[in-house]
Amino acid sequence: MSSSITAEPGSGTAAEAEPAGPAPSAAWKGWPLRVALAVGSGALLYLSFPPRPLWWLAPFALALLGACLRGRRARAGFGLGVLHGLGFLLPLLIWTSEGVGPVPWLALATVESLLIGLTCLGISLVSRLPAWPLWGAAVWVAGEALRARAPFGGFPWGKLAFGQADGVFLPLAALGGTPLLSFAVALCGLGLYEALRVGAATRRATAALLAATAAVAPLAGALASRPLVSDAAEEGTAVAAVVQGNVPRAGFDFNAQRRAVLDNHANRTLQLAADVKAGRVPKPDFVVWPENSSDIDPYTQPDAYEVIDNAVKAIGVPVAIGSVLAPETGPLRNTMILWDPVKGPVDTYDKRKIQPFGERIPMRSFVRLFSADVDRVQRDFGPGKEPGVFAMEGSAVGMVTCFEAAFDDAVRSTVQDGAQVIAVPSNNATFGRSQMTYQQLAMDRVRAVEHSRTVLVPVTSGVSAVIRPDGQIVQETKMFTADALVAEIPLRSTQTPATRFGPLPEYALLLVAAGGLGWTLARRLRSRRTAA
Fold first, then answer.
1. Where is the region Disordered (predicted)?
2. What are the tens digits of pLDDT across the range 312-341?
């Protein structure tokens, strides 16, 4: 094999034989730099996520990762990918250690980093192909699709899309959902690296132009998608209120004072009713309480029923109540209850995406060997089956409870079921003042643009918010402060292309990734036959 092919794998010279890679001594020579770049690219990607408005760092992080992976062997790509994942996820997910110590945090970050390692293995394989940034970005989306589904139902936290709530790429969410948005960021970053690498050689002007196109095309696509983003009222407006009652204390033990949490939300609703009566705020058409605002089952506990009913009667409009229902047999249910001021509880929605190791404990006996905190969850929650859209004084309000906002299908199915408004009742008190609440709020902003819906975010301890369909926050609370937000919001029924197409953009990108990996395999087989 010629030395030029060894030095420039994937350059398109000679036969399409797959290069064998650099000699062992040459391969190890650059490893310290590659390790530093892999970890640094992960740290840079972390810095691009909220609460920092540094979304523009993400393409540069992917460019650095591309520099690490291009031309590497599969095993090297996997190892560098794991290091990138740890540099990214260890700081991003540190909030999972709140109250339970480092073991769950380290375990989760490690498992997710191994999956990122598999993703980067795939990117290193396709990096020898012509136009490799296209294939590499598709492989990145395939890796995110895997992480959103496995293990234990998936953990989509850390998608590139969720760091772009303030970014110029955001309108692409309305066109192809979070998969297309992530693809655009990855393509821009990998294309940027390739443009810089190839552009240094004037003899490769065409290749440099193609690489530059890969970097610029996502920006052009985002600009072309801007007309899809609108906050115009299509079916009138409604006045919505979200209540943040606050909790007695942060951490896992806040549940020990469940009655105090319920009383806080009831009392803040009574105060809202007094403010309405005094003319200080307009009367809402409906109110949404957070997840776990009543961890006491009102169907079995008369005193909880009375407290909720009095608060709802005082405000005089339908209220969505977050509760935990404890049937005599079977799993617990994380339930939103539609409470009418006259009829009482009239409808329910059971959370469908149950958080593993938070609301249910897979492999309990095995996990207990590493942490006794698993027994804080003494009885597992069970998932609901159907999307929940509450009819609230002429408004169709879709319920997407907390963790569910990270899952494309959970949000989309709610909008397809007729939701004119999305509510994401959440409980972040467990995670204190960590960055978790801001990471989740960014997800909610992306979902607002993706489906062109107002998103209401009532949280027990903050940050609660009202998000317009264009992704802008118009009102928000402070953390660990009792408050209520009242805002006039547009009601919308138009479905964006992302809502109509659903998983099709993701499936298309998975086919692109499979095509790139298949092409790589074919080249390797042809190389071996030629060598033989």
1. 1-21
2. 999 999 999 999 999 988 899 999 999 999
CA 312/CA 321 separation, integer angstroms? 10
Question: Per-residue pLDDT for 357 more than 90?
Answer: no
Question: What pLDDT digit, counting tens, does each position of 41-98 carry?
Answer: 999 999 999 999 999 999 999 999 999 999 999 999 999 999 999 999 999 999 998 8
Fill in the amino acid letter for 265. H
Structural domains in the chain plus CATH codes: 31-228+503-530 (no CATH), 236-359+379-499 (3.60.110.10)
Instruction: For 415-443, give one letter per residue: b (16+ CB within 10 A) or e.
Output: bbeebbbbbbbbbbbbbbebbbbbbbbbb
Coil vs helix vs strand at 148: coil
Closest CA to 131 of 241, 15, 79, 209: 209
CA distance 23 to 6: 9
Residue 158: phi and psi, rounded to 5, are 90, 10
CA distance 159 to 38: 18
Catalytic residues: 291, 351, 402
